From TrEMBL:
<feature type="domain" description="Aldehyde dehydrogenase">
    <location>
        <begin position="11"/>
        <end position="273"/>
    </location>
</feature>
<dbReference type="Pfam" id="PF00171">
    <property type="entry name" value="Aldedh"/>
</dbReference>
<protein>
    <submittedName>
        <fullName>Acetaldehyde dehydrogenase (Acetylating)</fullName>
        <ecNumber>1.2.1.10</ecNumber>
    </submittedName>
</protein>
<dbReference type="InterPro" id="IPR013357">
    <property type="entry name" value="Acetaldehyde_DH_acetylating"/>
</dbReference>
<dbReference type="InterPro" id="IPR016161">
    <property type="entry name" value="Ald_DH/histidinol_DH"/>
</dbReference>
<dbReference type="InterPro" id="IPR016163">
    <property type="entry name" value="Ald_DH_C"/>
</dbReference>
<dbReference type="InterPro" id="IPR016162">
    <property type="entry name" value="Ald_DH_N"/>
</dbReference>
<dbReference type="GO" id="GO:0008774">
    <property type="term" value="F:acetaldehyde dehydrogenase (acetylating) activity"/>
</dbReference>
<dbReference type="InterPro" id="IPR015590">
    <property type="entry name" value="Aldehyde_DH_dom"/>
</dbReference>
<keyword id="KW-0560">Oxidoreductase</keyword>
C-alpha cells in the first residue's frame, strides 16, 4: 500500500526519532574523548564540503551568494568547533571547593532541529555539532524549499560522525517535510528540546508545543553612525554586511541612522561604494515591491540582489549596484523601508545627536527587532555604553559588520547560527546558542554549614546559620576578653596563674 505524501512524511519523522532515541541511549555513555573525536570529525568534513554545500543551497533556494554561503558554512563548522572544542560536556565539568558543590553534565536526549531557508546548510552543520557535543541526538525538519541542501549538510555530518564512532541514527532528518510532520516532531514524546530557527510562525509553534524550546526573533537591526565615527570605514562595513549573502542573515542592518553633522559625508560614501540612492518616485516603486500588502514583507525579495529587486520594481540602476538606499523619516509597519527587509535594501534616517538616535532606534526595534542586535559606529565609548544600558537588545556591536559580527565571525561573541533575543523578544535567552545550552547541569552538594532547627513551641527562632552565629559569638568573646584585660591592668610576661585567672573571668562573664 502506497502512503500519501503527508503520511509518509510523518512516518519518516517517527522512524528518525525512534532511531535517534536508541542511538542517544548508547551515545550518552561515551567519554569526553570519544565525543570530542566525533565532533571534530564532523566539523572537518563539513568544512571540507563548505563550497559544495553552498552551491547546492543557492541552486535549490535561489537565495544568496555562493561565496558568502561558503563563509557561513565555514563559520558554522570550523568557527563553531573552535568555540566548543575545549568545553567539558561529560561527567564532572566543574567543582567549587569553597562551596562544596560539584557540577555534572547530563544530555537532554533527542533534539528537534528546525532549519530556515535563508541559512539551510550552515544551520544544519552548526546544530549537529552543538547537539552531539552535549551528547544529544538530533532530528532535522528542513524548510520545504531547502530540503535537498539541508539533508545533504546533515548527511555529511552524520556520515563523519558514524565513521568516527558515533552510533547509527544519531542524526536524522525528514526527507520530504510537511507541516504535519514538523508539528509532529516538535510534539513527539521522545523529543526533549526544540531548537527552532525560522519564521515567527514556526517559533511560536515551537513555544506552544509543550516542550522546552530555544527560539529566535526577527532582527530589524538599526545601525547608528555617530558624529565621531570614521565615516568611510563605517559605510564600507555596513555595505559589506548588508550585502553579505544578499541580506539573508537576520542580524544584517535594516536601517542606518546618521548624525546630521556627517550626513552628506555618509551619503557620498554610500554612493562611492556601490549604493544606489533612490529618488522619491523610485522609492515609491520599491516600497510596493518590499511590501505589496502593507505590514508584510514580500518573500519574493528575500535573498535577491539589488539589481534583481530594482528590475522587479521597474527601475533601472547601474550594473555595479550592490545596495538600494532611500531616505526615510517615518517608522511603522505601514512604512516599508522601516521594516525588516532581508535583502540589500536600506533606509537612511537623519538625526540631531545621540539622544534622538537612541529614541529612533528603540522605535525601529519595536517593529520586530526587540532583543536582537544594534550596531554603533562611534569613537565615543561613553555613547556606546549609554546605548547598551538604554536599549532593549541582546547584542550591541561597535564598529563592526553586524551580519557576521553578531554570529561571532568578527567579534568575540560565541560562534552561533541561532541568536537568542531574550525576554525583550519573547525568548528564554539572549545568548548566542551553543553546546552548553543543550545539556542539563546536575549538582552534587555536600554539607557546608549548620542550621539550628528549633523544637516546636520554643518561641522565637534564630534563623542565622552556624557560620553567622559563630561570627557573632567570636565578636562577643573578643569583647569580654578586652574587658577582662582592662580590669587586670597592664601585663608583660604573664605566668600560668594570671592566664588562668583571666580565663576564669571570661568564662564567668560568658
Amino acid at each position: 500500500m502506497q502512503l500519501d505524501r503527508d503520511l509518509q512524511s510523518v512516518q519518516t519523522m517517527r522512524n528518525a526519532v525512534r532511531r535517534a532515541k536508541q542511538a542517544q541511549q548508547e551515545f550518552k555513555g561515551y567519554s569526553q574523548e570519544q565525543v570530542d573525536r566525533i565532533v571534530k570529525a564532523m566539523a572537518d568534513a563539513a568544512y571540507e564540503k563548505a563550497y559544495d554545500l553552498a552551491c547546492l543551497a543557492v541552486e535549490e533556494t535561489g537565495l544568496g551568494v555562493i561565496e558568502h554561503k561558503v563563509i557561513k558554512n565555514q563559520v558554522g563548522s570550523k568557527g563553531v568547533y573552535e568555540s566548543i572544542a575545549g568545553v567539558k560536556t561529560v561527567g564532572v565539568i566543574r567543582e567549587v571547593p569553597e562551596e562544596k558543590v560539584v557540577e555534572i553534565a547530563a544530555p537532554f536526549g533527542v533534539i528537534a532541529g528546525i532549519v530556515p531557508v535563508t541559512n539551510p546548510t550552515s544551520t544544519a552543520i552548526f546544530k549537529s555539532l552543538i547537539a552531539l557535543k552535549a551528547r544529544n541526538a538530533i532530528v532535522f525538519s528542513p524548510h520545504p524549499s531547502a530540503t535537498r541542501c539541508t539533508v545533504e549538510a546533515a548527511r555529511v555530518c552524520y556520515e563523519a560522525a558514524v565513521k568516527a564512532g558515533a552510533p547509527e541514527g544519531i542524526i536524522g532528518w525528514i526527507e520530504e517535510p510537511t507541516m504535519g510532520a514538523t508539528e509532529g516532531l516538535m510534539k513527539h514524546p521522545d523529543v526533549h528540546l526544540i531548537l527552532a530557527t525560522g519564521g515567527s510562525g514556526l517559533v511560536r509553534a515551537a513555544y506552544s508545543s509543550g516542550k522546552p524550546a530555544y527560539g529566535v526573533g526577527p532582527g530589524n537591526v538599526p545601525a547608528y553612525i555617530e558624529k565621531t565615527a570614521k565615516v568611510a570605514q563605517a559605510v564600507q562595513r555596513i555595505i559589506d554586511s548588508k550585502t553579505f549573502d544578499n541580506g539573508t542573515i537576520c542580524a544584517s542592518e535594516q536601517s542606518v541612522i546618521v548624525d546630521r553633522n556627517v550626513r552628506e559625508q555618509t551619503l557620498r560614501a554610500f554612493k562611492n561604494n556601490g549604493a544606489y540612492v533612490l529618488n522619491e518616485e523610485e522609492k515609491k516603486k520599491v516600497e510596493h515591491v518590499i511590501s505589496p500588502m502593507r505590514g508584510k514583507l514580500n518573500p519574493a525579495i528575500v535573498g535577491k540582489s539589488a539589481s534583481v529587486i530594482a528590475e522587479m520594481a521597474g527601475i533601472r540602476v547601474p550594473q555595479e549596484t550592490m545596495l538600494l538606499l532611500a531616505e526615510e523619516t517615518q517608522v511603522g509597519k505601514e512604512i516599508p523601508f522601516s521594516i525588516e527587509k532581508l535583502s540589500p535594501i536600506l533606509a537612511l534616517y537623519t538625526v540631531n545627536g545621540w539622544q534622538e538616535a537612541s529614541d529612533l532606534c528603540e522605535r525601529l526595534l519595536a517593529l520586530g527587532g526587540r532583543g536582537h542586535t544594534l550596531v554603533l559606529h562611534t569613537e565615543d565609548d561613553e555613547v556606546a555604553r549609554t546605548f547598551a544600558l538604554r536599549l532593549p537588545v541582546s547584542r550591541i556591536l561597535v564598529n563592526t559588520p553586524s551580519s557576521i559580527g553578531a554570529v561571532g565571525a568578527t567579534t568575540g561573541l560565541t560562534a552561533s547560527m541561532t541568536l537568542g533575543c531574550g525576554t525583550f523578544g519573547g525568548n528564554i535567552t539572549g545568548d548566542n546558542i551553543t553546546a552548553h545550552h543543550l545539556m542539563s547541569i546536575k549538582r552534587l552538594a555536600y554539607h557546608a554549614k549548620d542550621v539550628t532547627v528549633p523544637k516546636p513551641g520554643n518561641g522565637t527562632v534564630d534563623v542565622r546559620t552556624a557560620s553567622a552565629k559563630e561570627k557573632s559569638e567570636t565578636g562577643q568573646i573578643k569583647e569580654v576578653v578586652a574587658q577582662v584585660l582592662a580590669q587586670v591592668g597592664p601585663v608583660g610576661r604573664m605566668d600560668k596563674q594570671t592566664v588562668a585567672a583571666i580565663v576564669d573571668k571570661v568564662l564567668a562573664q560568658l
